[in-house]
Amino acid sequence: MKKNNFVMKGFAFAALSAICYGTNPLGALHLYAQNYSPETVLFYRFFTAALLLFVVILAKGSHFKISFREFGALVAFGFLFAVSSLTYYASFKYMDAGLASTLLFLYPLEVSVLMAVFFKEKIKTWTIVSIAVSMAGVALLYRGGDGVPLSTVGLMLAFASSISYAIYMVMANRIKLQMGSVKMTFYAICFCLVFLLLYSVTLGSGLPPVFTQASSWGWGFMLGLVPTVLSLIFMVKAVKIIGSTPTAILGALEPVTAVTIGVLVFGEVLTGRLIAGILLILGSTVLIAAKRK
Fold first, then answer.
1. Distances (CA, A) of 261 to 33, 177, 216, 241
2. 93-145 per-position pLDDT tens digit
3. Hey, where are the domains in the chain?
4. Under 8 Å CB-to-CB from 132, ≥6 apart: which residues?
C-alpha cells in the first residue's frame, strides 16, 4: 500500500509539473494587455526564477562552482532557452495561446527526428505513424476557431520554439552534465537572461522598463514561480519516483491547461475541428514519449 501511495505521489507530481507549465499564457497575456513586450515579460519571469532557484540551491547546501566545459554547455543551453522562450511568447501575439502551446508540444517528435538525422538513431514504424498523425493535427489547426487561416508568422514562431526546445533536449541528453537539474536550470536561466537583454537592446524594445503597477509585479512573480520554478521542482520529484517516460506522457497536460486557460479566461474559440487537431497532436507525442526508453 505504501509503495502504491508513493507511486501515486509521483504521478501527482508529474501532473502538477505539466499543469504549472501550462499556466504560461495566464501571466503573459495579462502583461501583454498592459502593453509589455514579450522580451520584457520573459525578463521578469526568468529574473524572478533565477532569484528563487538561487535560494533553493543555497537551502540545499549545494555549491555554484562549474567547470569550463560546463560553462560552454550552459551558455549554449541559455541561448536555446532564450530562442525557444522568445519565439513561444511572441507567437501569442499572432495566434491563440492554447494553439501555440499545442504546437510547442511537438518537440518529442522533433527530438526523435533529430536523433535519427544527427545520431543515426533508427526511425521506427511508430515514429513515422506519430509524425503523420501530428501533421494531420497541424493541418486541422491551420484554420483557427473562426475559420480564418492561422497567421503564418505565428506558426513559424511556434515551430521555431518547438524545434529550438527539441535541440535543447537533445544537447542536454548527449552532453550529460554532472550536476542536478535545479543547478543546471539556474545557470541556463542566468545565461538566458543575458541573451534576452542583448536581444531587447539590439532588436527589441530596449532595456526592460520597471513595472509600475502592483498587478504587473504579481504576474511577473507568478511566471517566475509557477511555470518555471514549481514546474521544475515537481518534474524532478516525478522523474525520481516514476521515471522520465510516465512524466513525459503526463506532460500532455501542459497544452491542455493552456487551452483551458485560453478558453475560460481569454475567450479563445474552441471548435470541434480544433479539438480534433489538438487531440491528434497530443496523441502522437504521447505515443513517442511512451515508446522512447
1. 15, 35, 19, 29
2. 999 999 999 999 888 888 888 888 888 878 788 888 888 888 888 888 876 65
3. 2-291
4. none
Distance CA 222, CA 41 (A): 11
Nearest to 141 by CA among 158, 127, 162: 158
Task: Quote the pLDDT of residue 289.
Answer: 74
Q: How many residues does the chain have?
A: 293
The one-letter code for the residue type at 55 is V
Per the structure block, which three cell numbers stand in for 216? 504587473
> In the structure grid, which three cell numbers stand for residue 159, read together?
515551430
Task: Name which of 28, 159, 183, 169 is nearest 111 in CA terms.
Answer: 169
* H or E segment and range at residue 188: helix 181-202
- 149 forms bridges with which residues in the sheet? 143
User: What backbone phi and psi angles, to 5 degrees, belong to 46?
Assistant: -75, -30
CB burial of 46-59 (b: ≥16 within 10 Å; e: otherwise) equals: bbbbbebbeebbee
Question: Quick check: helix, strand or coil at residue 143?
Answer: strand
Task: For residue 262, count other CB atoms closer than 10 A to its CB.
Answer: 25
- Predicted confidence (pLDDT) per residue in 20-53, tens digit: 999 999 999 999 999 999 999 999 999 999 999 9
d(CA 123, CA 292): 11
